[in-house]
What does this fold into?
Amino acid sequence: MIIKHLAIIQVILPLMAAPVCIVIRHHVGVKIWAVLISWLSFLISIALLVQVSDQGLIVYQLGGWAAPWGIEYRIDILSAFVLLIVSGIGAVVMPYSWTSVEKEIVHERAYLFYCMILLCMTGLLGIVITGDAFNLFVFMEISSLASYVLISFGQDRQALVAAYRYLIIGTIGATFYMIGVGFLYASTGTLNIFDLSQLVPALSASRTVKAALAFFTVGLGIKLALFPMHMWLPNAYTFAPSAVSVFLAATATKVAVYALFRIVFTIFGGTEILEILPIRGLLIGMAAMAMIYGSIQAIYQINVKRILAYSSIAQIGYMVLGLSFDNATGIAAGIIHLFNHALMKGSLFMVLGAVMYRVDSVQLNDMAGLGKYMPLTMAAFFIAGLSLIGMPLTVGFVSKWYLIQAALEKGWWPIAMLIVISSLLAVVYIWRVIEVVYFMPANPEAREVREAPISLLLPTWILLGAVIYFGIDATTGLNIAIAAADALLAGGGS
Amino acid sequence: MPFPGLFNYWIVVILMMIGLYIVIAHGNLVKKIIGINVFQVSVFLLYITIGKVAGGSAPILDQGIEVYSNPLPHVLILTAIVVSVATTALGLALVVRIRNAFQTIEEDEIDQQEKTG
Amino acid sequence: MLKKTILRVVSKFLIPFVLIFGLYVQWHGDFGPGGGFQAGVIFAAAFILYGLIFGTALLRRVLPSKVTRSFLVIGVLLYSGVGVFGIIFGGEFLDYSVLARDPLKGQHLGILLIELGVGITVAASMITIFCAFAGRSPNRLDEF
It folds into this structure.
């Protein structure tokens, strides 16, 4: 009986668990509760992925109201894959935050932190699972509001300003999305994404529909921090508590990328609008600029968290680039990069959380010589960094390989060159950190530093294990990504 | 074209521009939130206008009424209003804490303090 | 606390009616215009009026933060609980038809409970938001 309802349980489990945190209040109880929920959530998403790959599309109608009148949850292979990313990262972050939050957030507020992170997870899972355009907006705002609060938990007072700026720009993005939904509703009279995909092709000439596409692109572009709409991201990631940086960097932008392409491909995929309006070319252009700009900016930062934040902007460029190619290889590369980047950035930010725990700072100078005192932590940084550059035998290589292949398939060798250049720039910024960590003499106070506690190391190395495992055995992930790409290319009918 | 015509849509556009302008042009953090509110309200108005059916009555079932306005946009906007209230409350709460931390709610002064550390 | 006699007397007269109007909008929502959101806000408005006139300290004695907080939780859990009951009784999530033997009665009961959950949460959160802002002295430094 439960199997039939897994789709909805995936969303309501964290949703109902969040207020329970307020009842529990005690910081230990809340932590155990959050870990439990996140693991359950992860199990559900695995079950969903298995179910989808066995039987294909899962459709769940809320309240028994048939779509397009009722809200419908719709899980295809792509959404199941993204669900797995979100809940998987959640399942690793929750135990990780156990120690990290203890250090960075006072006990009395820990319950609020867990309440918010569960709500954020609800929102992200909901965005992925829902088949209703307006419901997507609601979930987007649930996750965004929760993430503003999470960022404002940061120790530095600048965290407040970062959260505020994110709130302003994020709200504008969400409202733009809402305008887009309104335009589509005005011209078609439906909110169901699948139903829209059937009705919109007949309206390709309508200016309202074109305007809707423009609003969707800008609104979601802001949410996913696509260059040049990325200004909120570096500060938000830098000043947020470590566990939050891990969670947001690994999931939030990925889900926004997913949402953008769900809208662009599923609703507008079968229409002539994509030919009339050069949305694909525009996205490719912005993605290419993001790759170069993000990497160059990352080189000049002195805060390691900020280096990673700018690198995220570049990596978002890769994802959008892959998904904007209209060939299956490119889309598969984009999808697999969603997963790979979540693993890599997750483990990199986790390393910084461990450094924060021991050293109380993630400034580049303060990390000098730590390779000697925190060998396991820094080895993790080294490996994840190599993956970010795109070394073979790590996941980073897999996605870049396919991305370049896709570019060459199209005959766009300048794009392939840009990918290589951006990777070389990644070598520079990762090497800067590696050099400081391994070859600089340690500061006097750093000599007291011990290896990070096992509760921080274990989650980091689990993610890193995944980085290496999926780098060697690339086929598992790739098969899913290729299936998802085919489904996306086939349009909403899948 | 009879009176309302596109009147509502013009108002929507004007309000939207006013809202966005306030958000961009004003350095005061509270004013920015007011701007966001104006901006969002313009979108609410857009939805409500979409929901109006010419000659339709309020969507409450009654005898002798054939044409009803579309109630769905109203419900959507009810949700959007709740989201907007939550955003405003959170934004103002952040402003309060920013003021406590920086002793100011002017963006340029905060920028200055951020630069000097 | 304000010393204005008129305000204090009038608001004392007004508050019970506001509360009753809130309850009317809440319970009458399935026959006419109304529902949980509006009712919750109206209900909270009565308390906010009380807080404005008599001060948040007194308001907090009527509704300690523990109470508002638990109502926040109760509302959300009531809403989602009704949904889960739909699953347990063999329907889909939020399927009210299975709540009673007669689907029509089930729908009726379901929407009533859902709106009650909405009303409780909205009222509690409006009061919480009001207290959070009004309850602080302007020059206090952040305890954070």
